[in-house]
Amino acid sequence: MLGKLLKYDLKYMLRNMVVFYILTIFFALITRILFNIEQSVIVNILAHISSGCMFSMIGSVLINTMLRSWIRFKDSLYKDESYLTHTLPVTKSEIYNSKFILTLVFFFVGFVVSLVGLFIAYYSKDNWVALTNFVKSITTGLNITTMFFIVMAIILIFLEVFNAIQCGFLGIILGFRMNNGKIGFSVLFGFIAYLAIQTLILALVFAYGLFDSSVMELFKTGSINIDVEAFKVLAIITSILYTLFITAMNIVCRKILNKGVNVE
User: Fold this and answer.
1) Span 8-27, pLDDT tens digits
2) pTM of the model as a whole
3) DSSP letters for the chain
């Protein structure tokens, strides 16, 4: 039944997000065409306008993935649609897992669409060489491999944003247990959860630094000449902590949901 519920959620999300995917690719293609034809003042202006529209659509893809995930979560659990949702032969844990997987899938899709749009608009041999040289200049200075730098950067960005989305889920669950001001309390609780996790991660990294002087040095020094091994350890520890907190919050959210929901 989880598969059918997820399929329904995916259709809803795709219906709301596909326009942003199409517009991202459309403006990427227009940008590519305009920058590759004979330049004039008008063509150059149009090319930059198209480029701006493409970046706007990329931002819209990422922002709307978050917003639509929260809206879908709220509507299917607490609004009119929830009357149907709660009559289905599924547990509240399965309902939550469906929303969790839905967000995971579309955040990944949005990320891929954004990269494809940028590739279509700006890829050339010269631009690729310039980009790789820029990344290599960073990784060479830090004395780390390019692959490690790219992989860790993507993982950390993904975990950071996904953690924020799930904090929103927790905020909605707690907010809609209140009698009044449910939306306001949802935002408040979600924000508090996000700040709490960021603080805990920082505190735990600091605590680890008490046993590893190289990591502690990152808290003390203002120099850009950081210890490479300490940087690697910090990136790995932060990724692990984010993963643990996301997993723990998933469990907490499902436990609270299983206590019952107040349908409007």
Assistant:
1) 778 888 888 899 999 999 99
2) 0.80
3) -HHHHHHHHHHHHHHHHHHHHHHHHHHHHHHHHHHTS---HHHHHHHHHHHHHHHHHHHHHHHHHHHHHHHHHHHHHHSTTHHHHTTSS--HHHHHHHHHHHHHHHHHHHHHHHHHHHHHHH--HHHHHHHHHHHHHHHHHHT--HHHHHHHHHHHHHHHHHHHHHHHHHHHHHHTTSSS-HHHHHHHHHHHHHHHHHHHHHHHHHHHHTT-HHHHHHHH---S---HHHHHHHHHHHHHHHHHHHHHHHHHHHHHHTT-----
